[in-house]
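WARN retry 2 of 3 for item q-0093 after timeout on previous attempt; input resubmitted unchanged.
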Amino acid sequence: MKQAVLFRAGHNSDALEIELGRRNIPFVKWGGLKFLETAHIKDLLAFLRILENSEDDLSWMRVLQLLDGIGPGRARQAVTHLRQYQNRPEALVSWQAPSGAADTIKSLSALLSRLAAKSRPLPLSAEIDLVRKYYIPLFQKRYDNPEVRLRDLDQLELLAQQADSRASFLADLTLDPPTSTGDFAGPPHLDEEYVVLSTIHSAKGCEWDVIYIIHAADGVLPSDMVKGEEELEEERRLLYVAMTRARDVLYVTFPLKYYHRNHPAGDSYSTAQLTRFLPPSLFRLFERVGSASPKPADNTLPNAAGETAQHVRARLKKLFD
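OK item q-0093 returned
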């Protein structure tokens, strides 16, 4: 059975990708890089990998090259210097850094030394928050469209709140070094079972037996960046495209809450509502199921399809409730 999960923007699948990877469920993604393949996520995780294993030269190389005036050659010099001092972060201060990076090197040394101190351990989400504060100025200078990429960093911090420890978090993400042969594995073979994750734009012209549309909520579909009636109608057409990709079975889902980074003066979540493109007048055309609803009796699906649907429904409930 061919099935796909469709969404408005590439970052909408972040949490789902992590969960699929954790459960060893193969998937391919169309439209945008996979969450763990994006450069900014690799950057931030490199900080955590250094804290977990200070002898991780690849992560040191990645972090050091984020700084002005430090290329591969200078970064290798710094790594060699660190080895002479058992890779202790405070040893960075005694390395002769380029003048343009002197201040950021001192700040990096102070940050990693503080986070590595076993006498004052911090929760993982707090570690990521401090790393973000250091990383954001570098990130904004290095990458285009930082506002969109920030959503991925927010998602990573939210995922970290559910982790038992830094080590287990990194293990769950199954991070591989950049030279891993896994980077060349490619998509699954045609005779293997896998699920397709795709942006709606990338799904145009394709069909699957079963379609799951996720994040069908106002602010996502339609996007909160929409201006004017013409753009709003384009968003409506996008939902139409997504819904008509299904041959046999269609699921349209939206979360009851969206969780955000914690703010001292505000809530950690906002409530969500179903997309305005599916008003109450259309509810009669759907079988509505909520987290508190009993499982529907569905005699229209083949056994395999029904079991798959129940399985995926349970996973989506766990992800978004």
